[in-house]
Specification:
Length: 320
Amino acid sequence: MRRYLLALLAAVSLNTVADDHWKPFPYDQSAYDYSGDKLREAWPRLTRGFGHDYPFPDTDWVVTTATRYPKALELTVTGNTGFTGKPEEAEHYAEQLQGVWRLVFRGDFAEAKKRGLALGVGGQVPAMFAQVVYAMFLAPDQAEKHRLLEEVISYTDQAGELMQADIAAQFGRVYAKARLAEELSVPVVLKRGYTSQIPAELDALLAKQPRQPFALALYGGYEAGVIRKVGKLVGKMTYGVSADQMEQYFARSFRAADDLPIGHYEYANALAYVYGDDGQAKVVEQLQRAVAIKPINAMEALEVAHARKLLKRQEQVAQR
């Protein structure tokens, strides 16, 4: 068991702590306190975007996960995690991991990355989740945003089977690729292989968790993004995307969870990409739904704020 737990914490050359001078979360954090037992109680709602029953990182999770992935034994602890591999130390490790998730939900993203990476592979999921959120909403410019998203992809690819098996880690990687594909030129996207990787990774993720709201909404957004760049005809013939499929993915996402701000503003963006001015009324409707949702964590607060900005722009356009 000692070797299994050592493997869980192996750093895989990812033991560098965060030295990022990230901007602080810009809104009131008092509503996002998940100290003590509050985290376990709220966990199903906090992680509903990842689908049903995303596992709570308690002591049993630490031991079970380590046992389930024996190839992780090939990894060696190369960073100073403060964990020696003794089974009785699993509880302390779990408490540290839960603390990282609390930082993520509270909006202390830089500290979440730092503490998460200091825990090795086991802490990388919340660390990279924090980085994705920061990149999307708080990065100072597009170049930094792209650098951070590319780093998420690199970290996840290097982390081995433990990360490949975690649906949150899988989503974070494909989400980063999809956001990059949306903003990079078509030749760059093709060169990186994103046009084949993104649907393949989403298909694999949905095969494990068919009702994951995040993945379903991302798939719909991806198809809309392809249509935006190459048009409906080329999109259908070359990449197999269509407006009908886009609509179906979002419908499935909303059936799984209708109270995620990101789902509604992603759908609003998709409608604008695919239908242009003809979809403006629906765009406004979806943004209004997004801003009406009361956020339960820092990420959702940033999503609602983003949706509010998009809604204001739409209202300004309508007044012209």
